[in-house]
Specification:
10 helices, single chain, alpha/beta, about 40% helix, about 20% strand, two-stranded parallel ribbon, Protocatechuate 4,5-dioxygenase, Chain B
């Protein structure tokens, strides 16, 4: 029997979340178990990562997606990680067809791998790597409304036991985070706390108008999101939950001083 899985957005943090004794790591390790306990094991995962970008929606259709080590300057052990999840060509073609039908021309990439925004959280959530993963790109030059529409096109998948997983960062200012880590400043700055709280309040109220206009309305938006990319996967997950969707915060913490690891599930 088909099961409906709630779309989820996770803040994936830095790659070191895999090895740090960090609340965000423990949350992601538990999240996969909680999802399976509540909804059953997903048949497949569509992962929308902030690090997979393209002008038009692009769907990965590799049979065995390679890992992409798209980061530098981190401990050597992170570069020897292996996450051998298989892909799903038929699902990739279905996703492209759904997006096309929504009026957004989609491309299929037969060689797209899994960037660290995908394989890092998935390694913690589903360490057995036994669930097919299909990556889907964001369009960083397009707005939140576009990404909500992209999510809405994916909504039928949730009813077919496919987990729609957005992976980005609720507060994502890498330059600030690295400086705080270097200077051993673990407490989040006021602007990060303010933005994270504003985001949570409006997600949990289902205030789409405010969320779409977060650049103008949210406190600390310029510092919290120097670029839009790490927030766009959240809008895809929100859109996939359907009209009137609200979010339920699953976790809230900070790493590297100012990287928020806030994460939500969504339901209409």
């Amino acid at each position: 029997m088909a099961r409906t899985l709630p779309p989820v957005f996770v803040s994936h943090g830095a790659p070191t979340i895999l090895v740090d004794d960090d609340p965000g790591r423990h949350f992601l390790e538990q999240l996969g178990q909680d999802l399976v306990a509540a909804h059953g094991r997903p048949d497949a995962i569509v992962c929308i990562s902030a690090h997979f970008t393209s002008d038009n929606p692009r769907v990965g259709a590799a049979a065995a997606p390679e890992m992409i080590f798209d980061f530098y300057g981190f401990p050597a052990e992170l570069y020897s990680r292996h996450y051998p999840a298989r892909g799903d060509r038929a699902l990739a073609e279905r996703i492209a067809a759904l997006i096309d039908a929504a009026g957004m021309p989609a491309d299929i990439d037969p060689a797209q791998g899994l960037d660290h925004g995908a394989w890092v959280p998935l390694s913690l959530m589903f360490p057995a790597a036994d669930i097919p993963v299909v990556p889907l790109s964001i369009q960083p030059r397009l707005d939140p409304a576009h990404h909500r529409a992209l999510g809405a096109a994916l909504a039928p998948l949730a009813g077919d036991n496919v987990l729609i997983l957005g992976s980005g960062g609720a507060v994502h200012n890498v330059r600030d985070a690295m400086l705080r880590r270097h200077h051993r400043m673990p407490d989040p700055p006021d602007w990060a706390v303010a933005f994270d709280g504003w985001l949570a309040d409006h997600i949990e109220a289902g205030d789409v108008a405010a969320l779409d206009d977060y650049r103008a309305r949210a406190p600390g938006a310029r510092c919290a999101q120097p670029q839009d990319d790490h927030l766009m996967p959240l809008y895809v997950a929100l859109g996939a939950a359907g009209p009137g969707a609200v979010g339920r915060r699953l976790h809230g913490s900070f790493s590297y001083g100012s990287l928020s690891l806030s994460s939500w599930s969504f339901a209409a």
